[in-house]
Amino acid sequence: MSDEREVHRGGAELEIPADPSEVWQAIATGSGSSAWFFPTDIEPGVGGAVRLHRGPFAPDASAVVTAWDPPHRLAYTEPGEAPAPTVATEFLVEAREQGTCVVRVVSGIHADGDEWDHFAEEAGAGWRMSLLLLRAYVAHFAGLPAAPVDLTVPVAAPSSARAEVTTRLTAALGLTGLTEGDPFRTAPTAPPLAGTVEHVGPYFLLLRGHEPAPALFAISSFPMDGISLSVNVTGRVYGSGAEAHAGPELRRWTDWLGSQDLTH
To answer: Quick one: CA torsion of 220, 221, 224, 230, rounded to 10 degrees?
Structure first.
């Protein structure tokens, strides 16, 4: 599956407290991938079909497995005909000492023109957030049933206001001043959630909840088209009651975000 266009690369890596076989289950199986990433259908082996269900953040995508080397390497390619780019994604998993491993993701965007460098950079930023989700999932919820709570809300602010929007969102949640490892409880006016802060960054929060249900919530401000912003929530509820909890949680987050003015 060759593509002679220029390749623009973005990527990320993270050390994860698990062995490669545990990470492989999370990245190379449908149930594992769906529990922290997009709901995904994966047919094992080179040539296998991949279907990424990206709603509500982006259209669904089809890909083909181009490398399958359990538990160390998985790659797939989403074909695109010019001017649409072909996108190649590769996961590399390397064992380290004391039961940990390093996971590296590389995205290659096959397209001509310097403007695609920005998209490669954004892909790398997106993967850095996704790997933090993967780490938290593998460390705390691996193998549990999962149900999604995913939504995106446009914000009437330019992409240059991304940090300010995230600051206002953090304040509205009642989480100002918290850092990684701190216990938290959201403000009374926000969707109820209590647990531990997994990550705080200028554009991204990752919260691990234990009330009202075991859950991960990744909350970010993200450029939609290089010009305007959206606030995205990637949530996963875990355990035997995941499906029953996910529906009410989606309604709560949708209603709350829709009521927020994050531009002032």
So the answer is: 100
- Residues in a beta bridge with 62: 51
Characterize the bridge pairing of strands 194-200 and 204-211: antiparallel
3-state secondary structure of 159: helix
Q: Which tokens is 140 given?
A: 């705390």
Reported as a single tens digit per residue, the pLDDT across 159-183 is 889 899 999 999 999 999 999 999 9
> Start-end ranges of CATH 3.30.530.20 in the chain?
7-140, 146-259
Greatest alpha-carbon span in the chain = 55
In DSSP notation, 182-229 reads: -EEE--TTSPP-EEEEEEE-SSEEEEEEEESSSEEEEEEEEESSSSEE
Sign for the CA dihedral angle at 112, 117, 122, 127 comes to positive
- Answer for the pair 158, 169: CB distance below 8 angstroms, yes or no: no
pTM: 0.92
Structure tokens at 20: 């490669």
Q: What is the CATH number of domain 146-259?
A: 3.30.530.20
Choice among 2-11, 212-221, 252-261 with the minimum mean pLDDT = 2-11
pLDDT in tens, 220-245: 998 866 568 999 999 999 999 999 99
In CATH, the architecture of 7-140 is: 2-Layer Sandwich (3.30)
Looking at residue 2, what DSSP letter applies? -
